[in-house]
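Lecture 7, part 2: worked example. A protein chain together with magnesium ion.
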Amino acid sequence: MKKIIFMGRSECGKTTLTQAMKGREITYHKTQYVNNFDVIIDTPGEYLQTHTLGHALALYTYEAQVVGLLLSATEPFSLYPPCITCMCNRDVIGIVTKIDERGADPERSARWLRLAGCKTIFFVDSKAGEGVADILEYLREPGDVMPWEDTPKTTEKPSKNHKKSH
Ligand SMILES: Nc1nc2c(ncn2[C@@H]2O[C@H](COP(=O)(O)OP(=O)(O)O)[C@@H](O)[C@H]2O)c(=O)[nH]1
Ligand SMILES: [Mg+2]
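Predicted complex, written out as structure tokens:
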């Protein structure tokens, strides 16, 4: 799987999505540090909310192949400046979280993420797991086995002896 780094303000759902993508039972966990030990780098929201710490996030993008900007569908504002994605040379995707919440406006959040420069947007309810598989598929690399599969998908061509079935 491609390595992704999640960014977004506190409480937007970075850790919950991280846990949902790993198939973990969701437990409360306050992110106190940049968690860079896996294919998902989880970061504290304070890094995005504090101007001086924002530079650390820009540096951390080099540790990942994909940057995920999270924005909750319930947020009445966005912290992302227009065209911020050009700050790094990685693919940047937008992820709208909490689409299930009362009063959520996923399309409004998606518009802010597009304004920030995200060309691909995902919509998730991390609690129910909705939309999580789409992100995993996006990050998939040849040979990866998805949680809902039991055998790896092969990208190898069939051998000469292998009959094609039509
Ligand atoms: N309804 C709903 N609640 C969510 C979702 N994602 C996160 N939450 C809740 O939002 C709160 C903050 O989540 P957390 O993952 O700690 O946010 P973080 O600060 O960005 O890591 C927690 O109470 C989560 O249960 C979601 O997709 N839907
Ligand atoms: Mg967190």
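Residues 8, 10-16, 31, 45, 97-98, 100-101, 124-127 surround guanosine-5'-diphosphate (ligand 1) (CB under 6 Å). The mean pLDDT is 86. Keep this in mind for problem set question 3.
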